Amino acid sequence: MHQTQNPYNIRELKKEEYPLLKEYLYMSVYVPKGEEPFHLSIIYEPGIALYRDKFGELPNDYALCATIDNQVVGICWVRIIDGYGSIDKDTPEFAISIKSEYRGKGIGESLMQAMLKLLKSKGYKRASLSVQKENYAAKLYFKLGFEVYEDRENDYILVYNF
Ligand SMILES: CC(C)(COP(=O)(O)OP(=O)(O)OC[C@H]1O[C@@H](n2cnc3c(N)ncnc32)[C@H](O)[C@@H]1OP(=O)(O)O)[C@@H](O)C(=O)NCCC(=O)NCCS
Question: Looking at the domain 9-161, which fold is it?
């Protein structure tokens, strides 16, 4: 079982906390092993920026966060956009990142499960995401029940059927 020193809570990300998505989007971009971290400006590249631009203004925007001592330590958010992991105009695409010092403690898995529950309650039929094949996050998604929708050269598009 996973254990954290301080218990974490999961709740909706508040509107005034949306600016945090800038940092969390940056953290969510996978850096292949042995490579230098990307420059911060990567979040302004159009294909990446659309995961965050005007978040909260599209009808299918949802964000949950994990907090410890009321500080946000992880965010999982979804939108329907033309992203790396999008499959159609009805299917929200996941993004997630946990602050590095809080990874590996079960927080990411709990956040994903909470978002899946929320999306199910909203009546979505499917959810999707893109993950680099070598990113250990893929293991988490398979464990949660995501399945391969498209097998590309370096990444998968995974889908979760509710
Ligand atoms: C990927 C990420 C969201 C997972 O969140 P987390 O809180 O670290 O993960 P959890 O502790 O909940 O672990 C869940 C599962 O993920 C996998 N996992 C987590 N850390 C792992 C590691 N260091 N090595 C291998 N597998 C790992 C395991 O399958 C684990 O389940 P298990 O412990 O029962 O084997 C988080 O590590 C992160 O923010 N990474 C950087 C950003 C990123 O890659 N985002 C996803 C882009 S697609």
Answer: Aminopeptidase (3.40.630)
Pairing assessment for the beta strands 126-132 and 147-151 based on DSSP bridges = unpaired
Pocket test for ligand 1, best of 51, 98, 107, 160 (most atoms within 8 A of CB): 98
Mutate to test the pocket of ligand 1, among 5, 26, 86, 136 (most ligand atoms within 8 A of CB): 136
Which of 6, 27, 15 is closest to 71 using CA atoms? 6
Judge if pTM exceeds 0.85.
Answer: yes
pLDDT in tens, 21-63: 999 999 999 999 899 999 999 999 999 999 999 999 999 999 9
Q: Which residue has the tokens 């020193």?
A: 5
Ligand 1 centroid–CA 32 distance in Å is 15
